[in-house]
Amino acid sequence: MFKEIHKKALSMGIQQHQLSRLQFTQRVRQPRPRRLLLSCLYDCLMVVAVLAACLLSWQLDWPVSRRHWTHAIMLMQGQDLSQSTWHPCLLTKTRPTVPIFRPVVQCDFCQNVSQIVRLPHISAAEFEDKYAYSGHPLIVSDGAANWSAVDVFSFEFFRDIYEPGSPVLESNCQFFAYGFSHVRGVNDVFTFYESGQHFQNGSQPVYIGWENCDIAAATKLRSHYSRPYFLPPLSQSSLSDWIFMGIPGYGASLHIDNVGLPSWQAQISGHKQWTLESPTECILQCPARLTATVHPGEIIVLDTNRWFHSTLIVGEEISITIGAEYD
After folding, report:
1. Is residue 87 part of a domain?
2. Alpha carbon 259 to chain centroid distance?
């Protein structure tokens, strides 16, 4: 239509430079795709600038403090601030942020891995040479076979081991609840469930993990287990233990950790299936997925900072595991 009008105008003696001064002509001649592209580019730049400003503010703790950033995130998640206390590691609970900001890894840790190896009677020398720091996952089938924890640890044991005022019960230790969003800490679980049978038959899906930062309780715990026999002589386990407990059919969704060190996790009761996936940058060089089930008395050794991993409790028993990082 514009071409016909333009042709008719020229036939009537109107000059081209006169047509060019018309606002309508200028507007029609401006390419629409270019306008859309510039608009999209402007929007993208604004989003990037806002994200960069937020990250810079978090790093500098100014002009908005990390405490206020944390409260804002908790509000967006629908959490009750009146029931929460400030902890410097609170944002580690927002697991989706870990894969986004994690450093790129070297893929040599998974290049020659085709399965999760299961071995008994492994020596400390062989473990250090092949598995301790290589990133190759391993299940030591007799790792916890002689521990009394296999016979002692239960829901009731952990419910009774913490004295009133314990930092674990006061939610001063790190705590994770997978698929059980209204639980704020270990004390909520022990208060809500009367026994292990009640815990297992509850209407809510339960898979929880907590850091044992209670020194008195740690002494009692470690009287029932010892440092894994296969760890290198100069290796030290972290001072804090981690306990994970859950019912069949549930576990942790696929994630990657940011704890800095490899770790061991002993299966005390129940059976837990582990699924490992290599990082995105390693999918052409490493296996896409590995699976294995860890049984009572076995210990899995894994660098959870490099392997994406998920767990699923299988069988009919409550799963209880205990573990720690090692250097």
Report:
1. no
2. 10
Condensed to tens digits (0 to 9), the pLDDT of residues 77-89 reads 666 555 454 444 4
* pLDDT at 204 (0 to 100): 66
Extract the tokens encoding 323.
């573990």
pTM above 0.85, yes or no: no
89 occurs within a structural domain: no
- pLDDT at site 110: 92
CA trace torsion 200, 204, 207, 210 (10° rounding)? -100
Whole-angstrom distance, CA of residue 201 vs CA of residue 213: 29
Identify the three-state secondary structure at position 253: coil
Q: What is the pLDDT of residue 268?
A: 97
Q: Which of 49, 79, 109 is the last residue of a domain?
A: 79
Looking at 114-249, list the stretches that DSSP marks H as alpha helix, in order from N- to C-terminal side. 124-130, 149-152, 155-161, 186-192, 196-200, 215-222
Residues with pLDDT less than 50, the chain: 83, 85-96
Sign of the CA dihedral running 50, 51, 57, 60 = negative
Whose tokens are 């009008």? That residue is: 5
Q: How far apart are the C-alpha atoms of 229 and 121, rounded to whole Å?
A: 9
Residues 109 and 255 occupy one common structural domain: yes
Q: Which of 212, 209, 323, 295 is nearest to 255 (CA)?
A: 209
Q: Is 11 inside a domain boundary? A: yes
Q: Please state the domain count of the chain.
A: 2
- Sequence-distant (≥ 6) Cβ neighbours of residue 180 within 8 angstroms: 204, 205, 206, 207, 208
pLDDT on residue 82: 54
Q: Please report the pLDDT score of residue 92 as a whole number.
A: 43
Question: CA triplet 116, 118, 120: central angle to 5 degrees?
Answer: 160
Domain span at 29:
2-79
The angle, 0 to 180 degrees and rounded to 10, between the axes of the packed helices 32-60 and 66-76 is 120
Is residue 84 included in any domain, yes or no?
no
